[in-house]
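Dear Dr. H.,

I hope your travels went smoothly. While you were away I took the liberty of generating a structure for the chain from your last submission, since the lab meeting agenda had it listed for discussion. I wanted you to have the full record in hand beforehand rather than looking at slides cold. The sequence, exactly as received, is reproduced here:
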Amino acid sequence: MGLPALEIDALPLYEAVLKGSSRPPDIRAFEYELQQGTGYKKWLFNPAQQRAEFRLRKMAIARPVKHRLYKGYHQYLTTDCPLGKRRWRSGYREGQAFANVIQDCMHCPRCAFLEYETEYAGYQEVPLVPARVHCWGHLEQSLKPKPWQAPV
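The corresponding predicted structure, in token form, is as follows:
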């Protein structure tokens, strides 16, 4: 429906504020934490976040992924990595930037998302191999990295 929705986990809040002490329960502290606190809340849907993610997805460039079998190992590579993760050292592509999708793109803060080739296994559609990397590495460096990653 597009409405903001917040989930409050009241049981740990109750245990932390009311049940944890030997004193009589402090209802005001519970009410304050319930209304003002952020420790026991999480967004189920945030329209502002959805709009921001949609804008970023539209700005991302889809880079095709190529499969390569090298010395018995499967590799998935994408060419023209804007961050220059790796460079070809020889051949007709010498000096050209590329990235290994598994090692570089999946952990890159500039990777918006990976698009996979899919097949049906029974009635369920399952991802098989990466088909495209949607990347916003071409944009300015002011974008923030994902919270679990170090800045580039």
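Two observations you may find useful: The CA atoms of residues 13 and 34 lie 8 Å apart. Helices lie at 10-19, 27-36, 47-59.

With kind regards,
E. W.
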